[in-house]
Amino acid sequence: MALFVYTCLCYLALPIGIVFHLLFVWRRAEFRRGFWQRYGWLPKKQHQPVLVHAASVGELNAITPLIEAIVSDLKLPVLVTTTSVTGQSRCQQLFADNDRVSWAYLAVDLGAANWLMLQRVKPRAVLLVETELWPNLITTCARKKIPTILVNGRLSARSAKAYGRLSWLVAPMLQKLTQLLVQDQAGGQRFLDLGAQASKVSVLGSLKYDLVIPDSQIDITSAAVPAGLCWVCGSTRSGEEASLLQAWAQLPPQIRGTLVLVPRHPQRFDEVADLCQQSGLPWLRYSQINYQGVVDVDVHKAHPRSILLVDAMGLLMHFYRRADVVFVGGSLADTGGHNPLEAAALGKPVLMGPNCFNFTQVCDQLEQVQGLRVTTNACLLEDITQLLTDQSLRDTMGAAGAALVDKQKGALKRHLLAIEATLEQVLGE
Q1: Pair type for strands 257-263 and 283-285
Q2: Distances (CA, A) of 243 to 113, 164, 249, 275, 279
Q3: What residues are annotated to the active site?
Q4: N or C: which end of the chain has fewer CB within 10 A?
Q5: Contact criterion met (CB below 8 Å) for 281 and 248
Q6: Cα gap 249→253, rounded to integer Å
Q7: What is the DSSP string of 246-284?
Q8: CATH fold of 36-206+409-424, please?
């Protein structure tokens, strides 16, 4: 009955959803690709792949080592689905040279769309990343006897409270999952409190610690960032850049260097460019560097305190390598924060705002070993001043964060063993 009510509400909202989808398609060309995929018409590029759904770039980055291990160790093809356009772009960057991995958009959570998607793809298993829990998709997989596994599962206290208001829908959905492979004990208990079966919940640790930092043969930052201190602010969200720019402008005069802003979403590049212009400090778009005559890059680089706006996707790790201090965005804004482990793995001191509920366990662990400092808008200027003027503190924090990442690795192997066991059990039935 609960699923019936949910499905009816979804179908009632469908006409409005289609109108908004068409508006997106009309206003932004990137939404035109894969239009029918969102309604179940996915391409048949692989024979019975493992379908892995990661909503956006953050989830995709975390799950990439597992995808690669499924292909290399289990010898199975993988279809990666996302919901965001940036997620699709990231798939192309990551897997363009791997003919065993394909990608598409996930169908909307309607029974007909899910049935069509599964009928076309015929996945041997469906892996849902972190909190990508869709009632109709899970129910349709259960009816088709397709193993459905939550991988790298996490559930914050805030999300658990929201799910608890829909317990009539959430509990039956969780009981239909084949396995829940979760990051930590607290999250596992929250899933149990919401109705998951204890026999299906396993605490395996976070895949985020098993991240692979690719070797970089070319330093793409040298043309844009001169010698001197470099403060990189990655995955910034609306409302954060103004605070970061204000702090940068108010630093003591002896601090010389470059502030690098890397917005989370490309549609905000122009908005952040306006903020840079309003700051009164010299600033430059990364995209301008390769166009001679547009700006005088040498004059820009010669200024004692300048700003670089990275208006391109997929370059964050390059700038993290160059950073002396990293601020991880989404944490001064009330959006839950983004993954600090990429910066920590590179041995960089990490600064984040107080809103880190998307990565509570990771941030707590980094803070406990003093690899991360939590700041606020009121304390931002004081904290960044101390970090930029104290190299010993930066070195100590960076080493502590890198050591924690190395110590916590191992969730990838545990996940792979659990998935392999489930697939073998299905084949044996």
Answers
A1: unpaired
A2: 43, 35, 10, 10, 11
A3: 59
A4: C
A5: yes
A6: 9
A7: HHHHTS-TT--EEEEEEESSGGGHHHHHHHHHHT-S-EE
A8: Rossmann fold (3.40.50)
Q: What CA–CA distance (Å, rounded) separates 369 from 111?
A: 47
Report how far residue 419's alpha carbon sits from residue 74's, in angstroms, rounded to the nearest whole number: 10
d(CA 125, CA 122): 9
Backbone φ and ψ of 206, nearest 5°: -95, 130
The CATH code that applies to domain 229-407 is: 3.40.50.2000
Residue from 275, 262, 254 nearest 390 by CA: 254
pLDDT, tens digit, 9 for 90 and up, residues 127-166: 999 989 999 999 999 999 999 999 999 998 889 999 999 8
Each residue of 2-57: pLDDT tens digit? Answer: 676 666 766 676 667 666 666 665 565 556 677 788 888 998 888 999 999 998 78
How many whole angstroms separate alpha carbon 423 and alpha carbon 257?
53
Q: What is the pLDDT of residues 215-258, one digit of tens each?
A: 766 778 887 888 889 999 999 999 999 999 999 999 999 999 99
Ramachandran region, residue 153 (left: φ > 0; alpha: ψ -120 to 50; beta: rest): beta
* In the chain, domain spans: 36-206+409-424, 229-407
For the entire predicted model, the pTM comes to: 0.76
Burial 179-189 (b: 16+ CB within 10 A, else e): bbbbbbebbbb
3-state secondary structure of 149: strand
Q: Which residue has the higher pLDDT, 202 or 289?
A: 202
- Residue 152's closest CA among 86, 73, 207? 207
Q: Do domains 36-206+409-424 and 229-407 have the same CATH topology?
A: yes
What 3-state class would DSSP assign to 178? Answer: coil
